[in-house]
Every structure is written in C-alpha cells, then in structure tokens.
Amino acid sequence: MESKADIDSQTPTSHEDLDDPKSEKLENGDLEKNAVSEPLADEAQDLTPAGPDPNAFPDGGFQAWFCIAAIAAAGTWFKRHRALAFGIMVSGSSLGGVILPIMVQHLIGEVGFGWAMRITAFLLLGLLIFGNIAVKSRLPPVRKPYTLKEYFMPFVEIPFLLLAIGSLFVYIGAFLPFNFIIVQAKEAGMSTNLANYLVPIINAASIFGRIFPAHLGDVYGVFNVCIVFTLFSGVISLALWLPAASNAPIIVFALLYGFASGLTLAIIPALVASISDIQKLGFRVGTLYAFSAFGALFGSPIAGAIVTSQDGGYSGLKIFCGVTLITGGVFVIFSRIKLVGPRLLVKK
Fold first, then answer.
1. How far apart, in whole angstroms, are the C-alpha atoms of residue 284 and residue 68?
2. Per-residue b or e along 236-260, where b marks 16 or more CB atoms closer than 10 Å to that residue's CB
3. Span 125-168, pLDDT tens digits
4. What angle do CA 61, 65, 67 make, to 5 degrees?
C-alpha cells in the first residue's frame, strides 16, 4: 500500500504545478542536481502532507443513535453468552477500522477528498440499510411517556454510578493511542509508510480482542475480565509505549493494546446488562454512554494540550493515557466490590 505521503508526492497539488516550467527543469536537470536531491528523498517521504487525515474519522452523535439501539436489541436475545454476542457484534467496528483508513487513503489519491468522502458515505449507507433491516429486539418496546428524570435514575444506584465513572476515565484514555500513535511514531523516527499502518494494526488486533476474551467474560464474569484487561491496557501504556523509541516496541504495543482495549471497549454493555433489568437495558446503556462520551470528547484535547506544553514531547501524553485507564479500572473494581464484596473468586 502506498502511504498518503507517497500518493501526494505523485499527484500535482494544483493546476499551476502542471504548467510550471520549473518542474520541467527539475525533470531534465543535470545528473549532479539529481544526485544531490536523492539523499533528501527519505526525508521528503516523512513530511506530513497537508489536508485531512484519512485515519481520523469522527465518532459523533449519529453513530451513537445507531450503535446504542443495535446493542440494546442484540442484548435481549442472549443471557448465557451475552458478552460473546456483544463482542462479535462490535468487532465489526474494528474490521471497519482496518478497511476504511486504507480505503480512504487510496481514494483521496485517486479521486480527491470530496469523492473519497462520497464513496465512503455510499458504502456506509448500504451497510446501514442492511443493518436497520436486520436489527430486531426479542422483547417488544415498553410504551410509556417519556420523562427526562428516568435517564438520571440509574446514577442513584452506587454500582452503576461507579461503573459510569470508570467508563468515563476509560474513554478519556482509551482513544489516545488511536489518535496519536501515528504522529508519535513519526516523531520517534518511523517512516510515514509504516506509521500509517499502525491504526489498522491496532484495529486488526482489536477484532480478536473483542471476540475471544469476551467469551471469558461469560465464563469467569464480565466484571472480572473487564478489570484485568483494562488494567493491562494501562500498564502496557506506561511500561511499553512510554519508553518506546524505535519501530519494534511501538508495533508490539499497537498489537497488545489493540487486543486488550478491544475487550475493554466491547464488554462495557455486558457490564451494564449484568446489573440491569433487560427491559431497561437500552436506556441504561445509552445513559452510561452519554455520560462516558464526555471522556472521548475531552480526552484528546487534554492530551494535545499536554503535548503542546512539552514542546512536542509525548511522554506526558503516554503517562496521562496509562493513568486514566488504570483509574477507570479501579472504579470498575469499586463497582464490583459494591456488588459482591471483596471476594476475588466470585463470578461477576
């Protein structure tokens, strides 16, 4: 796959470039000038291209509408293997995270940014048509008057409140590697061509992390498994990503973090389902996500401010990522203790 920088280097940026006589002089210049310019090729490859980042896809309100409804509907069909069902369902987003950045990166070079976005929109439209036809709840909706107060009632329950706070901290830190690992890897000396694969690597590992460990949640308890993988995500952010200064440890971190964080982000609805009436699962999952979404909203700006305060250094961002994930895991531990006490071997 060609990187975006490679594509930009082959594609004229404006009509003036096409007619610029200076470009002909460069092409027909003497051998001495070409020989001088060749050592600069590697540096030119690593230059950050102007324009939108194809790896940065917005994760906004419309997606939340589709996502929460589908999660709630799927949860009504399962009890014994509910965590595995959630994991399989949301692994599709990881698969999309592998395909879309690569697809958009090529499309921008082939047809331009505008048509790249239109093609992506038509693809998503087709998938959403199929998804909306396929989604069906086992239980009929409970018809009752809408009251805003009902969405705040779950926070009266201490286990739910602690879980929501834990999810908030998890969402503050969980998306930072997705958003910053490419620029951090380039700063550490990784080539643009290789760095552009890091987000697809994380998402590819996340596919397996969302499916296989989710089954462990059904066997050993969703709280237990979520706590282990959330703490592991935070620990490797501090122990592996923080000192990483070359290609190998950064790639290893991407693989391990994708696997671990995939489970953490996928199993949260199963945690809510385990402490909820199934008839109320939809709005309780929606309430928790509405609260924890503030973490995803403010996490990256805070991390960006930390990078700016360090004059482009990333150590503070990595520490912030690891600490917020560990803090989120601790609050999930508190929620579990409130439910079953401090006993370690209880399935919960």
1. 10
2. bbbebbbebeeeeebbebbbbbbbb
3. 998 888 888 877 777 766 777 677 778 888 999 999 999 999 99
4. 110
